[in-house]
Each structure stands twice: as C-alpha cells, then as structure tokens.
Amino acid sequence: MMLQPPCRVLVVDDSALVRQVLSEILAADPGIEVVGTAADPFLAREKIKRLNPDVLTLDVEMPRMDGLAFLENLMRLHPLPVVMVSSLTERGADTTLQALALGAVDFVAKPKLDVARGLEVYAEELRAKVKMAARSRVRASASPLRRPALSSNTPASIGFRTTDRLIAIGASAGGTEALRVVLEMMPADSPAIVLTQHLPASFSTAFAERLDKHSPMSVREATDGEAILPGHAYLPSGGRHLRIIRDGARWRCRVDDTAPVNLHKPAVDVLFRSVAQSAGANAIGAILTGMGEDGARGLLDMKQAGATTLAQDEASSVVWGMPGSAVRLGAVDEVLPLERIAERLLALARA
Questions:
Q1: Which H/E stretch holds residue 9?
Q2: 294 is catalytic
Q3: Rounded to whole angstroms, how far apart are CA atoms 117 and 121?
Q4: Residue of 23, 86, 136, 172 marked active site
Q5: Which of 151, 168, 239, 298 is the most exposed place for a label (fewest CB within 10 A)?
Q6: Average pLDDT, integer, range 43-58
Q7: How does pLDDT run across 70-117, given as a tens digit for each residue?
Q8: In this predicted model, which residue has the larger pLDDT, 154 or 50?
Q9: 198 is a catalytic site residue
Q10: Where exactly does CATH 3.40.50.180 map onto the chain?
C-alpha cells in the first residue's frame, strides 16, 4: 500500500513567535511537512513560486500588504488552499468572513492572550484543518468582495403564507459561502429556514449580518422562544445550539447552552433531530460542504420522519465530509450541485 506523501505547508505570519509555534505544531504531525515560513505577503509570494506548497496558513493583519489583498490576488492568479489564522475580535470575525468569501478554505481562531500556550490548545484543530485543506477544492475567484449585495436576478415571490413547510440546512468548512449562495437565491417570502454553521461564538452576529445583506429573506440570530415565520432564516446565536420545538400550530426556536455534540456547538445533528421530531414530513433538509460527520445522523432521522433530504455534491463542495457521510449513511434522497439546491428546496416546498 502506497503511503500518502505529507502535505507541504507554508506558514505566513508577521510574528516570529507565531511562525515558530505554528511550524512546531504542524511539523509534529507526520502527515504534514512545513516547507517554509514568511513574515509578509511579498516574501510569501516568492516562496510560493519557489517551494510550491500544497497549503498556506495566513494571518490577516500583516505589514506591507493586508492579508485580504494578498488572498484576493492569490486566488485570482494562483489558487491555493488557505487556512486563515485569525483573531477572535469582532473586527477579526468580519475580516475572516471576507477571507472565506475570497476563497480561503477554513480558519483557526488565534487565542487573544498568551498566543504560544493558546495555540497549543488549538494544535489538533489546526493540523486537522490543514490536512483537510490539502484535499479540498479551490477555484480561481472573481473578487466576491466587490459583488453587489443582491444579484440582479433576485428570485420572484412564490407566495408562501403559512409555516406549513420548514427548511433546515447545516454546513461547516466552506459553508459560509455555500449558505450565501443558497440564501441569495431564496425569495423574500420563502418558507422559514433554520440554519446551523460551525462557527466560534464571536462570529455569529457578523455572519448573520453578512447573510442578511446577501439574501432577500430576513436573516437573523435566533432568540429563545421566538416564533418561526416565513421569509425568515434563523441562525443560532454565539456558541449555542438551535433546536425547533412545536407550539400548537407553529414552531418556535429553542436556543440553549447544553454540551457540545460531535465536538460542535452549535451542532447540525442537534438542529436536524429536533426538526425530525417537531416538523417530520413538513420539513426539507439539506447538508452542505463541511469537514467530519456532524449532521449525517440527524439528516437520517429527518428522512425516516418523512422529510425530503438533499446533499451538496462532491464536485461543488469545498470538503465532502459531512455530505459524503450522509450519503454513505443512506440519509440523502438527492445529491445536487450547490447552485441547484435553492431551486430544488423551493420546488419541494411547493409540492
């Protein structure tokens, strides 16, 4: 059996300490080879040409050239899997979401204090995401930062007046952009949508605001107990699970602070299982790009409760972990490319 060669990584960060710590963390994994480091994007550009790495880790805030400007040029001229190492500040959250829009595969949150010791805590996550990035699909980007908030072909109204349909969508790595693609194709009076995307607690507000700008629907962070209404999409608020509960003839959001599930909080399985219990055959489920298996069993629960279930196909997924797991489990009725998921959700909701 042929052994897979280690993935070759270039570490780009303006801090010598962070470069050293990241290099040591990554090199401790036999599946990773750190081929070099760079203190700024100009040095990184030269080393990319010379070393031809499989993956970049990239800091956002750097001297001489902003990390986002560098990423935009890189994805246009020399697309390469990039894992952002970003701060968890409010500004860091917004910048990281922009980086994901530009084509970064994923990100690891840089601890605010005691970076050296803090990054040790993130060692396992960092190594897993770098190896996943090496297997991911990246495409040349056409500068999504300058894209208009809503496309000119915003879908026409389709006239839903009741909450008799509920759409549940889960995603992880690559999902911040995949969800944007789906939501910007959903008309303002679509059936209600409940969403779970793996994100750190401090990112949820910036992410909800970002999706709201791009979608004809009203996208918001869910508050515990609020009624679920057509034309609205609900995300769990920072680092909490979102469940759906039945209240007479309507559904309500249940936002709670219970333990992580599948190492995630929010977890897609938590949302999907509650939708299976509370909405059954009135629901439609979709699992999008993401690393790992979260959501696969919950989607199977939905299918067994009578819901129609969709998965994003491998070719359009950044990482076909979660959708692939759901397909292998027999949880999926239809496998579709990302750009066809919104129209299929609407067609199923009409049926």
A1: strand 7-12
A2: yes
A3: 7
A4: 172
A5: 151
A6: 96
A7: 999 999 999 999 999 887 666 778 888 999 999 999 998 876 656 666
A8: 50
A9: yes
A10: 166-350
Q: Is 125 helix (H, G, I), strand (E, B) or coil?
A: helix
Positions of CATH 3.40.50.2300 in the chain: 7-142
Q: How far apart are the first and last CA of the chain?
A: 50
Catalytic option among 198, 214, 232, 241:
198
Supply the Cα-derived Rg of the chain in whole angstroms: 20
Q: Assign domain 166-350 to its CATH architecture.
A: 3-Layer(aba) Sandwich (3.40)
For 138-152, how does the pLDDT look when each residue is reduced to its tens digit (9 = 90+)? 876 554 443 433 444
Active site (annotated) includes residue 264: no
Cross-strand pairs, 7: 32
What's the burial of 132, exposed, middle or buried (CB within 10 Å: 0-12/13-18/19+)?
A: buried
Residue 221 pLDDT: 97
Identity of the amino acid at 217: M
> What pLDDT score does 112 carry?
63
Residue 216 CA to residue 149 CA, distance in Å, equals 10
The active-site residue, picked from 29, 59, 294, 301, is 294
Q: pLDDT at position 152, please?
A: 40
For residue range 150-201, list pLDDT tens digits in order. Answer: 444 445 554 444 448 999 999 999 999 999 999 999 999 999 999 999 998 8
In this structure, what are the phi and psi dihedrals at residue 51, rounded to the nearest 5 degrees?
-100, -20
Q: What's the helix, strand, coil split of the chain in %, to 5?
A: 40, 25, 40
Contact 281, 303 (CB under 8 A): no
In CATH, 7-142 is 3.20.20.70: no
Do residues 326 and 292 lie in contact, with contact meaning Cβ atoms separated by under 8 Å?
Answer: no
Q: Both tokens of residue 101?
A: 């829009």
